[in-house]
Specification:
Elements: E1 4-9, H1 13-22, E2 28-34, H2 38-48, E3 52-54, H3 57-62, E4 67-70, H4 77-86, E5 90-94, H5 101-114, E6 118-121, H6 128-138, E7 145-153, H7 172-188, E8 191-200, E9 206-215, E10 219-225, E11 234-238, E12 241-245, E13 254-259, E14 264-268, H8 277-288, H9 299-317
Parallel strand pairs: 1-2, 1-4, 2-3, 4-5, 5-6, 7-10
Antiparallel strand pairs: 7-11, 8-9, 9-10, 11-12, 12-13, 13-14
């Protein structure tokens, strides 16, 4: 089995979690790393036994890696993805995949033209428990899914964090709200109508949003926030029962399945590793088998979740 060699772009906390997850992915390794500040890349490489540091992006993209993992601030995701795809590398990019639909459309078009694998790193879809729930629902455990409710809010964001910085496309919606949007789109399809209420914080980013949407197959009610505390549970409701994903649902470890007759079943599949290893393993398998798009997280699903999120963001910010 071919070893997939990753080049890591960015050296923040999410990149650290990615590297920790790689230890649980067979035949995959962090081969090179790049940060605009070379000293940060050097420290990151030393701490994680990564053999090569590059001082420029061009050097990394010209190296013999198979794929890049992009873990930089939101506004840089699209440009870095396009550069890597044009260089012939497969791309696993942190969410959000882009900060505008036009950017994402350009990324997808570039991936298709280059015939290279591109996938957003939307982790919940690949956790073992989430896959088990998908199998149970597909087998009719709760009937047809018609309603999704999900959200999370955390008021303990430190001052100076990127999520509070408008220049870095900060705000709750693009940072944590997009998880809820993914859940709604994953079960109900693209949104046809979105209604949003929210508020703006002192730094000019969205600090709370509540939105409900009409989808192809049902209705969703979602929220996210940076100025209040809120539980991280999610509800998948069907015509014959429901599944409650317990806090924190986007790292799914525990759930309760309840049928319309009141029968309850506790589901538990604690993740191993950092949790990012599941999406990475899927990505590596796609790359080895020559696929250019994930059947679990196709480009259309990434686009639908981003479109929904951006619609709510625009409604709150008035832009």
């Amino acid at each position: 089995m071919k070893t997939i060699r990753f080049g890591i772009i960015g050296t923040g906390s999410i990149a650290q979690r990615f590297v920790l997850g790689l230890a649980h992915v067979p035949q995959a390794e962090a081969a090179v790393v790049f940060n605009r500040t070379t000293s940060k890349a050097t420290q990151f490489a030393a701490a994680n036994q990564i053999p090569q540091v590059y001082a420029t992006l061009d050097e990394l993209l010209a190296s013999d890696i198979d794929a890049v993992y992009i873990a930089t601030p939101h506004p840089s995701h699209a440009a870095l993805s396009i550069a890597a795809l044009k260089a012939g590398k497969a791309v696993l990019c942190e969410k959000p995949a882009a900060v505008t639909l036009a950017e994402l459309d350009e990324v997808i078009a570039t991936a298709q033209a280059a015939q290279r694998l591109y996938m957003e790193a939307m982790k919940p879809a690949f956790f073992p428990l989430y896959q088990q729930i998908r199998e149970r629902i597909a087998a009719g455990a709760i009937g047809d899914v018609k309603f999704i409710r999900a959200g999370f809010a955390n008021p303990n964001v430190p001052a100076g964090h990127a999520v509070l910085d408008p220049a870095q496309a900060g705000g709750g919606l693009l940072d944590i709200g997009i998880y809820a949007a993914f859940l709604a789109v994953d079960w109900l399809g693209a949104a046809s109508e979105v209604q949003t209420l929210g508020r703006i914080g002192a730094t000019g980013v969205d600090t709370f949003a509540s939105w409900q949407s009409q989808h192809q197959h049902g209705i969703s009610q979602l929220y996210c926030g940076l100025d209040v505390a809120g539980s991280g549970e999610a509800l998948i409701s069907g015509t014959k029962g429901y599944v409650l994903l317990h806090d924190k649902w986007w790292n799914p470890a525990r759930a309760t399945l309840v049928t319309a007759t009141g029968e309850r079943e506790e589901l538990a599949m604690p993740p191993v590793g950092s949790g990012l290893n599941y999406e990475t393993a899927h990505f590596c398998e796609l790359l080895r088998t020559g696929q250019q798009e994930s059947p679990i997280l196709p480009h259309a699903k990434t686009r639908a979740a981003l479109q929904m999120t951006l619609h709510s963001r625009q409604a709150v910010l008035g832009t």
